[in-house]
Design brief:
By secondary structure, the chain is an alpha+beta fold. The protein folds into 3 domains: about 1-50, no CATH class; about 85-165, Winged helix-like DNA-binding domain superfamily/Winged helix DNA-binding domain (Arc Repressor Mutant, subunit A, Orthogonal Bundle); about 175-345, Beta-Lactamase. The chain has 12 helices and 12 strands. The strands form 4 sheets. It has a 6-stranded antiparallel beta sheet. Strand 10 (about 285) and strand 11 (about 295-300) form a beta hairpin.
Length: about 350
Amino acid sequence: MSAGSAAAYTGLVVGTPVPDDTPYPVAAPIGDIFLGESRQAPPWDVKMRDYRTPPASYFLPNSHMDAPAPISLKPAQADSVRAARPPADILSSFAGDPNFMLSLARGLTVLEAFSERKRPLTISQVAQRTQLSRASVRRCLYTLEQLGYVSQQDGHFALRPRVLHLGHAYFSSTSLVSAAQPILDNLSTRIHETSALAILDGTDILYLVRSEVQRVLTHALGMGSRLPAYCTSTGRLLLAHQPEAVLEAFFEHAELRPRTLQTKISRTELEAAFRRARELEYVLIDEELEPGLRAIAVPVRSLSGTVVAAISVSVKATRVSEAEMVARLLTPMREAAVAIGKLIGT
């Protein structure tokens, strides 16, 4: 490691420029501070994140440090088919299985009925979404309320913060999240744009990691946020690499509705977009999810070559043209995807 690199991992003098050959500082703010063209070390009151253990050679092109051991992340093709089906169909498919706990499954199904709209639901609304009987939904909600997972007021139920423990347990146990975050942070620093890593989950995409330079979406997104797959660059790219059974389940159960005047919703249009995605090895979507928003996504492949996730970058359509996105963003995005892919293993 060079002297400049060593200094980067032992500390920085506040207010001094960071050398151009510095791979990444020990204490870097969430989103670098740019003063003119020079990158500056942050003041003490900026929230810091520790990068003393670089995740891959992506950060250290001139060093001899070994990358961490690969993380196992298999494409959940069967789970994607199952998640795309209505909840009642999923439960009925386990009929006769003595090891399947139907009451637990119903409770989890009721929890999943609450979307990110943050709107309280009545028993009838939950029953309609889950296709469970009102009596089953009532018992599930009563139990969840007693356990502190939902609250109830005037017959309307809403999630309580306790449900965050369930999601936090998953993300805390997934090494990919902590390993990929610095890679995305470095990518966003290089291109000065917001980037994200997501996987396919049923008919949605699920965000695992996000590095936000500036907000470009109307609604704030973070770890665990979901968006429909059909009208997002990440979702369309991941769907393009799914087997036929997953795509059939997707088209059967996805709610394809126009989010903007540009949204592709017909099967013919989407299948053509999937073919183009496989040919180009990237997807660029122009104002299909939200007016004024463009996004580009590239695949993250495991060491065996299987597409298991995708990196996306979102920009304001008035600020960055489609041609500039391809010319300026594609190469650094693909480099970051390769770095994350090396962490995933086979």
